[in-house]
TrEMBL record:
Native organism: Escherichia coli
Record's protein name: Aconitate hydratase B
Every Aconitase/3-isopropylmalate dehydratase large subunit alpha/beta/alpha domain range: 53-346
PANTHER family: ACONITATE HYDRATASE B
Pfam family, one: Aconitase
Amino acid sequence: MTRDELKDLACLGFSADLVMQSFCHTAAYPKPVDVNTHHTLPDFIMNRGGVSLRPGDGVIHSWLNRMLPDTVGTGGDSHTRFPIGISFPAGSGLVAFAAATGVMPLDMPESVLVRFKGKMQPGITLRDLVHAIPLYAIKQGLLTVEKKGKKNIFSGRILEIEGLPDLKVEQAFELTDASAERSAAGCTIKLNKEPIIEYLNSNIVLLKWMIAEGYGDRRTLERRIQGMEKWLANPELLEADADAEYAAVIDIDLADIKEPILCAPNDPDDARPLSAVQGEKIDEVFIGSCMTNIGHFRAAGKLLDAHKGQLPTRLWAAPPTRMDAAQLTEEGYYSVFGKSGLVSRSRLFLCMGNRRVWQTARRWFPPRPVTSRTVWGLARMSSGFCGTGCCCGADWQTTDAGRVPDLRGAGG
């Protein structure tokens, strides 16, 4: 669709500094029309100065995030939520306009501030903090689950997150990415410079590898490298004014989060503590989507390796990028996954129907899952529930699959 819009705009070259295209929605089970697009779209993008990923490379967000200094952007997917800087997802027409002209019209919305404080408790992971945002909004009367007369303080506004300055950039993306489920217009998170500097130095190496592997447009990738090096020489970050005003402020004390927080079927706003779904039978488990990083798969692999006997559930796993899949293979995790169930290609998640499903992706709106009852959770709990076949309760830190490790420093 964006290609057609670009043709209508008579775009022969992109004015935006970076335009990236991927096949993450069509790589897994392509129809003949998709295969044709796989052959023709890359040249269309690269001839205009864009960067084209290859089928099977993985989810675009995991790549796009690696090409950002602190910047502003847009994308044709609702999960285009930069972990550094800020982005505003848009439709195909507006994305094409932004790519062709280098600018996009925007009515700047209000912001909602979410402030975390305190220290994470043992066994609690970043995904629990993601789900704490709707849970605490519900507690403050700023969000309702009921569709009739629904209240959503985040809708159409920017979600600003503070209080977690030392997160890795990949971890920060878990929070910004989930703002799509809040119906927020955009999201930004306040980080210290140190994790961003570490991230960009790694990204420069990746971009040089892409050039060596024949990815294009070469000049665009080289310009990205130069932009990163320029930022590293004088690192400055977007920052809220000291006297900034907000539509609402939500304070979350990490000391109060003592058990995992899940989202119940089929609404990512319906956040509940794990004890509220104790005993719920689980049929299938999926670990994947742009909400995951390699740390989640390592954690899941350790739990699955400790499990003895046949799994009572069906397990699916899909690393978000080709690089993650290769690294997990090298570390031996694919052998563990293979003994436990199917490992699918790097891509977007499966839409499985008529089951009770536990999964790490958060896009299970009706009618996507047909009549599935889907609970959203985190990878290390996904693998634990895969081993038990049900949602554990108050003793959630210990399951038949083994002791749940403290993953606060494991990228997840």
